[in-house]
Design goal:
alpha/beta, TIM Barrel, eight-stranded parallel beta sheet, 12 strands, about 15% strand, globular
Length: about 280
């Protein structure tokens, strides 16, 4: 089981010590052209989490490949590159330009306009463009997560990441939207039950590796996602509040594994499978 960061929740070049505590680093989403992102305000706190409408701000593919990626390689960590776009061609062209990384296709950003093609169509185009490992990052909005997982697997995905943020909104004391875009991606502790359900549904649908994320704050949260079927776990919003989260969460995870009398975190899946998953069949 590897510990990663969720895309967009950590800048490894400004916080290399935090990135060093992870097993692999996931970049911010890269799009073909530079993006300034959405107008401010684009981050807002809520009672149980955070809203963001950053809008995939990034320097664009050319500058990323020329400047950012070489600097990230000097960190000595396995790299995952989050790839975004507004058409299947956008995604495929970026994938084709990458080497020696794992690719995470951001197919479900809730605060930008999405590509007209389905997730499976985008994965299929990217699979034709690269032999690198492809993970499809999926939205929790789909009613049948398992169906989407099966579709991206059939299209050539090597794994799935879920969940991306939920679409949400918040009002200030004057009853006005806190975000300039009004809606944004909702993350934080309240997202964990959604993530657990999505990972359970994904694991029922596939044997592919699953990166579980959403509401992870403690070692117990990590163990629960693994119990539901996650192969790896990503830390997201917690990194904004606690830069020491990777080390703390690892220590807490070890304590939780010992408390549950397990030999390793992955053994938690057998417990949940026997007591929860089969009951639904």
């Amino acid at each position: 089981m590897q510990l990663l960061n969720a895309s967009g929740c950590l800048d490894a070049l400004t916080a290399p010590d935090v990135a060093a505590a992870l097993d692999a680093f996931v970049t911010k989403t890269v799009t073909p052209e530079p993006r300034e992102g959405n107008p401010p305000p684009r981050i807002a706190e809520t009672e149980s989490g955070m809203l963001n409408a950053i809008g995939l701000a990034n320097p664009g593919r050319e500058a990323f490949l020329r400047d950012v990626l070489p600097a990230l390689r000097r960190l000595g960590k396995p790299l995952w590159v989050s790839v975004g776009g507004f058409s299947a061609t956008d995604y495929a062209e970026t994938c084709e330009a990458l080497e020696d990384v794992t690719i995470e296709l951001n197919l479900s950003c809730p605060n930008v306009d999405e590509a007209p093609e389905s997730a499976a169509e985008i994965v299929r185009a990217c699979r034709a463009a690269t032999t690198l490992p492809l993970f499809a990052k999926l939205s929790p909005h789909a009613w049948d997560v398992g169906e989407t997982v099966r579709a991206v697997e059939a299209a050539g995905a090597d794994g799935v990441s879920l969940v991306n943020t939920l679409r949400g909104a918040a009002l200030d004391e004057r009853l006005r939207p806190k975000l300039a875009r009004v809606q944004g991606g909702y993350s934080g502790p309240a997202l964990k039950p959604v993530a657990l359900a999505a990972v359970l549904a994904a694991r029922r649908a596939t044997e592919l590796p699953i990166v579980g994320m959403g509401g992870v704050w403690t070692g117990r949260d990590v163990l629960e996602l693994v119990a539901c079927g996650a192969t790896h776990v990503a830390l997201g919003t917690v990194l904004f509040a606690d830069p020491d989260a990777p080390a703390r969460v690892r220590e807490e995870l070890a304590q939780e594994v010992a408390r549950a009398a397990l030999a390793r975190p992955e053994d938690a899946y057998d417990v949940a499978h026997d007591t929860v998953v089969l009951r639904d069949n």
